[in-house]
Design a protein that fits this description.
Elements (H helix, E strand, L loop, with lengths): L24 H7 L5 H7 L10 H7 L6 H4 L10 H6 L23 E3 L2 E5 L2 E5 L18 H4 L7 H8 L6 E5 L8 H12 L6 E6 L1 H4 L6 H7 L5 E6 L11 H10 L3 E7 L8 H13 L2 E7 L14 H14 L7 E4 L8 E2 L8
Parallel strand pairs: 3-4, 4-5, 5-6, 6-7, 7-8, 8-9
Antiparallel strand pairs: 1-2, 2-3, 9-10
The structure holds pyridoxal-5'-phosphate and iron/sulfur cluster.
């Protein structure tokens, strides 16, 4: 893991320019994202009535797909694995036993507004509910951000909680997608975290560098490439084609800036539940400086049952990956079980996990 230089020049607080800045290119791209499923189908040359129940599912969780991601989908293919991650379908409106609104128990682990503390030594900050894409399998698709996030940028209670616990060495920014926030706000938060002496690492879980590569601009690299804390980005890419241009260049720039890049994928039926796709995902990522982290079993969120892959099949795929790839390219197969002290690994023998 690359170590980061100590930042020796830092603008004193309160001297940031307050003049209005022009809207960054990435924010314009985000504002221009496709927000209705008919347009999405039409742009891919697919019939608007191809997907039964699409509008009802869209009403439950609104469609959002940026142009740059659309450009990596295959026109005319209703089963394109990138499209399937973003296209609403009728199955989402079907109730399935065991599929609930908060399958990972985050509500119960909130210790301050926006702060989740479940695992030893690390805490999770829910920074924003916004995302560049609305993934249909999302485990937070029903999470009530308005109710559980602090008022705009009021991190005082969360930071005080962290500061009072010497065993916390890592803060994880989560969401939504933390990189949906402006660099001014993120840089300010990173600076405040760096002032907490026992913290060593700032980890950001994000899909933005992959989904909206415009996000990786000079402003982001500016604060991410410096500071006292080690910066880790955990990308969420599920299919090797998500790493295609222009995401490849964005990831290279992040790696060059000294940011450690990891990838966490969700195992998704019809999208990446085959050995060739999973192997290509790890190898394509590694070529760009991204190491595999987790291969996650789906969290059982209401409306996502059609994406689930059985535990037996997941283990079979894991074993096949292990047989095919060098050890460092094999992600840990895991699932989140509420109340457990960490993610539960599914890689031991079937009788034990
Ligand atoms: C997944 C998760 C983490 C991070 O766990 P790692 O195994 O360190 O990646 C931390 N807190 C919560 C609440 C999580 O769900
Ligand atoms: S980017 Fe992450 S948080 Fe946002 S919709 Fe997709 S899976 Fe959910």
């Amino acid at each position: 893991m690359p170590t980061k230089p100590i930042m020796i020049t830092r603008e004193p607080r309160g001297t940031q320019p307050s003049a209005p800045r022009s809207t960054p290119v990435w924010q314009q791209a985000l504002a221009g994202a496709i927000r209705d499923p008919d347009t999405l189908l039409q742009r891919l040359g697919l019939a608007p009535d191809a997907i039964p129940g699409m509008q009802a599912a869209h009403q439950l969780f609104r469609t959002r797909v940026p142009e740059s991601y659309l450009a990596r989908m295959r026109p005319g293919d209703a089963h394109d694995p990138l499209l399937l991650q973003a296209l609403p379908r009728g199955e989402e409106t079907h109730e399935q036993p065991g599929f609930t609104s908060d399958p990972v128990g985050d509500h119960d682990a909130l210790v301050a507004p926006g702060l989740v503390h479940k695992y030893h030594g690390r805490v999770l900050l829910l920074t924003t509910g916004a995302c560049a894409i609305h993934c249909r399998y999302c485990f937070r698709r029903e999470f009530d951000y308005a109710d559980h996030s602090p008022a705009r940028d009021d991190w005082n209670a969360a930071l005080a909680y962290i500061a009072g616990r010497p065993e916390i060495h890592e803060v994880i920014l989560s969401g939504g997608d933390p990189l949906a926030l402006s660099d001014q706000r993120l840089a300010r938060l990173a600076e405040r975290l760096a002032d907490i002496p026992q913290l060593q690492r700032l980890r950001i879980h994000t899909r933005l560098p992959v989904i909206l590569p415009e996000r990786v601009d000079a402003d982001l690299l500016g604060w991410l490439g410096q500071g006292r804390l080690q910066h880790i980005l955990v990308l969420h890419a599920n299919h090797p084609r998500e790493f295609a241009a222009p995401a490849d260049q964005a990831l290279r720039r992040l790696a060059e800036a000294g940011v450690t890049l990891l990838n966490q994928a969700v195992l998704l039926a019809g999208i990446n539940d085959d050995i060739d796709t999973l192997a290509a995902l790890q190898e394509t990522g590694f070529r760009l400086g991204v190491l595999p982290y987790y291969l996650h079993q789906l969290d059982r969120t209401r409306g996502t049952a059609h994406f689930e892959v059985s535990t037996d099949r997941a283990r079979e795929l894991y074993r096949a990956l292990h047989a095919r790839l060098p050890g460092y390219l094999v992600p840990r197969l895991a699932r989140e079980i509420p109340g457990e002290p960490g993610k539960t690994l599914l890689t031991s023998s079937p009788s034990r996990a």
